[in-house]
Specification:
By secondary structure, this protein is α/β, with parallel strands linked by helices. 51% of the residues are buried.
Length: 569
Amino acid sequence: MMRVSQNTLGMGTMKAYEAIGLSLVAEGVTDFFGLMGDGNMWLWGSLCRNPSIKAYSARHESMAVSMADGYARTTGKVGVAMVTCGPGLTQCGTSLIAAYRGRTPVVLIAGEIMQGAKNKTQSMDQRRFAEASYARFHTVTSLDNMAEEIAEAFYAARIHRVPVVLNLPMDLQEESFDWDYEYRPSTQFLPPRVETPSPDLLAPVIEKLIAAERPVIIAGRGAIASGAKDEIIALSDRVGALLATSLQGKGYFAGHPWDIGIAGAFASAPSEQLLAEADFVLGVGAELGYYTTEGGLLFPSAEVARIDIKPMPEEIGVIPGLFVQGDGRKSVAALNEAVAARQVRKQGLRTPETRAILDAPPHRFEAPADGLDPRALANHLGAALPKGVLLTCGAGHFFSWVAMYVPLPEGAEIQYSYNFGAVGQGIGVSIGTGAGNPGRPHVVIEGDGSLMFNLQELETVVRHKMQMVLVVWNDAGYGAEVHKLVAKGFDEKLAQWESPDFVALAKAFGGDGVKLGAVSDIGGAIAEGLRKGGLYLIDARVSPSTPTDPYAKVHFGRESHAPLLRPLA
């Protein structure tokens, strides 16, 4: 418990906004993102008196929430954003839903016009808006209840892994305490996680694994977080399972001889063929949702089981199956122990026929003539990434190239901004991931149309002296709409434009950059950007007429020839 008296502060009577700031410090807040306004400026100023707190001032409220989202994903902490009242909050709707879809613990602190104010210009029902944006809503009602209400907001974010709007009435923020302020942070009340799985729940999974003739194990973000890789590989060796990942787990098993890459909409042609043969699929820290199972059609003959630290799924989903709550590593270790005790050692899908499919020469695609070849660019880009790189990727037609053709080096971590299917989120998420990982080489890939949503945040990168190599995947249009228009016989120019000079824009904000002349130049450009530090933008003008493999299959009926992504030598 934290107790602060007026004398401790050395400045007379303590204001509510000062006590709120102390509460945030007690919750472990060291960084926050936001936009200053009447509804939060005193709290902001109070926090910034603390030398251990760093404020990242964004240029748009929605990006402040996206920054907190990216920060939370890569640090394991609650991401904190701060905006003013009324329109300051309404700007955040899309980013709140994106954080909800990504199960990211974010606390968005918003000021609120006091009840009964005669100037109602910025007044609104903030609870209704927050809840419509899939955020939980907690408001501070009085000085007496303030400590408990702030702790409840952080508790909700931590336990439920959701965005929470912490509502602060402006008049209450300036009230004064005439007693000692006591605060007990939410971390004191967190229950122990259910990490050890129930033997009764594991039993049917064990039997399915032993009985399976063609098993596959798919690892996701939860497997990575729990450090389950070695246990998963050991289990796969015992039962003859192929290894795959969700999009979020990309590259986890790179280099393993029986790795088949991403499962789902971004699967290679060999992976699709092999997954169709599976008779049992075990997901570890992977929800096996719509995209990972390609709408439930990817492994039509397979029974399914999931292991996840979170409680039971909230809905049946596209592929029902067994569910075990538990830590990924501990649960798979228990499976290993049980399977080993039964002396199981099977060939499974690890056959000469499977090996022939995996080792077949890749399809040779014809290079486009109207811009850089996106496949070759993605492959060269992966080869140019340093070990341990943090790679942040925006959303749009282009991000399929990143998923399917960018090999990741050892120790790399990739974060996507696709959670709500919203373009424009990438630059905010990338600033948050960069803020949470200072000193780590950071490369960002964003589409030209998506970047134009929030181009102003390039100035935020420069002002805060952040390192970011930003690759603009530039097809001079909204690629998704372009290819869909073509598929339906419409004029694709409705979704295209003459590209702005992104390098000149980066320089205008105080950064630097280069327009890429050839695919082979990407390695030198990334190395130069990392060497120089700060904002370095690479304008890569790719073919606008080349659809990604998933788009070619879905919208043009073309057979998939996407090759299995090979690990870097």
